[in-house]
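Retry 2 of 3 after timeout on previous attempt. Resubmitting structure tokens to design endpoint.
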């Protein structure tokens, strides 16, 4: 059974940093797109970042220059380093896997999802 398990969320002050991890099990995702999305209360799930099997990275304009996505294919794990956090980054962050690269920003095109991890940035 495929599982994606996020960790690393928590409460941090404005300007702080967090590193999210997503550990995959049940199959290897080394050849798949993996992504991070977030959803704040009352809002739709939005794209944050994605990484291709070859290491190409894509980040949303709202987090560009602050968030970095990376992967360790040997460990079947993807990371999201979040720096200079702002209150508007507060959301539940979800890891996702297996989408066509052309649709990396569309949550409906991902086949696997984690349960999410809460990130709260206090002002």
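Retry 2 succeeded. Sequence:
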């Amino acid at each position: 059974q495929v599982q994606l398990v996020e960790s690393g969320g928590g409460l941090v002050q404005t300007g702080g940093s967090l590193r999210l991890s997503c550990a995959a099990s049940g199959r290897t995702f080394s050849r798949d797109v993996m992504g991070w999305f977030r959803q704040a209360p009352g809002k739709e799930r939005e794209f944050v970042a994605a990484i291709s099997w070859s290491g190409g990275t894509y980040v949303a304009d709202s987090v560009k220059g602050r968030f970095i996505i990376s992967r360790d294919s040997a460990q079947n794990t993807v990371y999201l380093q979040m720096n200079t956090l702002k209150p508007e980054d507060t959301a539940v962050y979800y890891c996702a896997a297996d989408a066509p690269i052309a649709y990396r920003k569309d949550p409906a095109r991902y086949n696997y999802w984690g349960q999410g991890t809460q990130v709260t940035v206090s002002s």
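Attempt log closed. DSSP finds no helices and eleven strands in the chain.
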